[in-house]
């Protein structure tokens, strides 16, 4: 088990939107606080669609942030100081917004929800649930904002990292984004998610210490500028830290800087140390990296790395590779840690089933919209992934756990896509063609860790390895960055029929 909760984080019930609390009081006053509810968390469009030149129907995402989400659920509660603050809030008439009895009830609140989720590092797709929360209505409602905050951001950054790592084609990618991140807490989460997505290390020392991520870095331009000359700066750094010398060479004249780094590298070698490499942070990175590589090799430093930074992302990395750049290590900062071209995933958390108590039948519900993509899926959902004999993912089937999954046969079974904006026909594969796995696995039962989580959260390195395997198991046409194909996600036929029936009944009642 890893200790991963940021020390600066103070989880509390106040980490929510006000309307969650006003709704909670409404349910409490109506005697409905403990009705059993089911909510699902997912997203409607794949991230980074606009830059890729498609409508968001293709591509994939990497589920990330579950460990912090579990800690958030476990910490749900309202201490005396938090309740005292809520007591100061007033309504439109100037009177207290919250009833003292409700605040006392919040003070006794202990999380008792069930949580089922995709493991971190799992490839996931639009309209299918990444997480299912089941339990008392008010508890499920109070968890919405925090769960979305955690999972939206880390899933987004892990996906961005995976795309950049893919563009690097096996070269190491380092995450350098802390100084441009959305606050210190955002930087910590970004470093963690980037590591899950495939980055080799981070410059963020707090994240490295907290999560066990390898940490990398040497010096900045300020170090060079603090000395009378560039060569003196390199010599001083080599004297102070001879085992950590990757020289930043573009403060003045880049290729002259490379020559000076080589001269100091020879001095290091004479003292029994090796220069790690040089870093480029501006200019024509393709041409400069080629020039740097030629100089390093000619001087007898074939193992010295050429590290590049400066506003990199998957598109620029791919373009530099295409241009023949001789870059060995990619330092990616702003455009990774902030998901620069898409700053939010747009995940949603929707109520899909409700009943007064455990003896009553479930009432399944659908959320309708004049914007079809916002139409939700009713029920108590599970995601079944189907893989062929080689392990490649073929299709995901979303079904209601009480209905059960359709039994595969020797002939393909007709199904409907889960995408409410598409009428594309789908066929479930033959039973002999696939192996199946249910992706939403128990994490909490009655608020206590369960299943594989009973002994603690998976190690982050294990999660990172899972992500790598999951991406490799996707069809190449789905995982590519530009104009990816749509991975098929189907609705189990009985669930599809129920959804259509609910939509029709709501339309008839309007």
UniProtKB/TrEMBL annotation:
GO MF terms, alphabetically ordered? nicotinamide phosphoribosyltransferase activity; nicotinate phosphoribosyltransferase activity
Q: Where is the Nicotinate phosphoribosyltransferase N-terminal domain?
A: 14-152
Which CDD domains does the record match to this protein?
Answer: NAPRTase_A
Q: What family is this?
A: Belongs to the NAPRTase family.
> Can you name this protein?
Nicotinate phosphoribosyltransferase
Q: Which pathway does this polypeptide act in?
A: Cofactor biosynthesis; NAD(+) biosynthesis; nicotinate D-ribonucleotide from nicotinate: step 1/1
Which keywords does this chain's UniProt record carry? Glycosyltransferase, Ligase, Phosphoprotein, Pyridine nucleotide biosynthesis, Transferase
| Source organism superkingdom | Bacteria
What the entry lists under InterPro entries is as follows:
Aldolase_TIM, N/Namide_PRibTrfase, NAPRTase_C, NAPRTase_N, Nic_PRibTrfase-Fam, Nic_PRibTrfase_pncB, Nicotinate_pribotase-like_C
Function, as annotated: Catalyzes the first step in the biosynthesis of NAD from nicotinic acid, the ATP-dependent synthesis of beta-nicotinate D-ribonucleotide from nicotinate and 5-phospho-D-ribose 1-phosphate.
């Amino acid at each position: 088990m890893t200790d991963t909760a940021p020390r600066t984080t103070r989880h509390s019930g106040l980490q929510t939107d006000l309307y969650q609390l006003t709704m909670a009081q409404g349910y409490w006053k109506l005697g409905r606080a403990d009705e059993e509810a089911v909510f699902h968390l997912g997203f409607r469009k794949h991230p980074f669609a606009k830059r890729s030149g498609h409508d968001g129907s293709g591509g994939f995402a990497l589920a990330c942030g579950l460990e912090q989400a579990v800690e958030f659920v476990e910490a749900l509660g309202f201490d005396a100081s938090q309740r005292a603050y809520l007591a100061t809030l007033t309504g439109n008439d100037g009177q207290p917004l919250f009833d003292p009895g409700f605040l006392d009830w919040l003070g006794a609140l202990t999380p008792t929800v069930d949580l089922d989720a995709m493991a971190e590092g799992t490839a996931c797709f639009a309209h299918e649930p990444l997480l299912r929360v089941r339990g008392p209505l008010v508890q499920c409602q109070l968890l919405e904002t925090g769960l979305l905050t955690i999972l939206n951001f880390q899933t987004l950054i892990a996906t961005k990292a995976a795309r950049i790592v893919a563009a690097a084609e096996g070269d190491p990618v380092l995450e350098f984004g802390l100084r441009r991140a959305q606050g210190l807490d955002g930087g910590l989460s970004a470093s963690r998610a980037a590591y899950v997505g495939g980055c080799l290390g981070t410059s963020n020392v707090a994240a490295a210490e907290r999560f066990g991520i390898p940490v990398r870095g040497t010096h900045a331009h300020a170090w060079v500028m603090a000395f009378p000359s560039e060569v003196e700066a390199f010599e001083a750094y080599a004297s102070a830290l001879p085992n950590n010398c990757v020289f930043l060479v573009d403060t003045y004249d880049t290729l002259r800087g490379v020559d000076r780094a080589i001269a100091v590298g020879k001095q290091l070698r004479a003292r029994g140390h090796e220069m790690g490499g040089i870093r480029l942070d501006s200019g024509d990175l393709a041409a400069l990296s080629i020039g740097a590589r030629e100089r390093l090799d000619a001087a007898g430093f074939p193992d010295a790395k050429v590290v590049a930074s400066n506003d990199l992302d998957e598109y620029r990395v791919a373009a530099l590779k295409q241009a023949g750049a001789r870059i060995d290590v990619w330092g990616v900062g702003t455009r990774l840690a902030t998901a620069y071209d898409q700053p939010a995933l747009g995940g949603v958390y929707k109520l899909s089933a409700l009943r007064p108590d455990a003896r009553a039948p479930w009432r399944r519900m659908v959320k309708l919209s004049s914007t079809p993509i916002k139409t939700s899926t009713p029920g108590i959902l599970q995601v079944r992934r189907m893989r062929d004999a080689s392990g490649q993912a073929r299709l995901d089937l979303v079904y209601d756990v009480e209905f059960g999954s359709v039994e595969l046969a020797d002939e393909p079974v007709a199904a409907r896509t889960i995408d409410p904006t598409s009428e594309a026909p789908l066929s479930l594969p033959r039973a002999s063609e696939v192996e199946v796995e249910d992706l939403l696995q128990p994490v909490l039962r009655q608020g206590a860790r369960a299943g594989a989580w009973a002994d603690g959260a998976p190690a982050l390195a294990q999660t990172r390895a899972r992500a790598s395997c999951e991406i490799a198991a996707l069809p190449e046409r789905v995982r590519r960055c530009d104009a990816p194909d749509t991975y098929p996600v189907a609705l189990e036929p009985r669930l599809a029929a129920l959804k259509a029936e609910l939509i029709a009944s709501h339309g008839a009642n309007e």
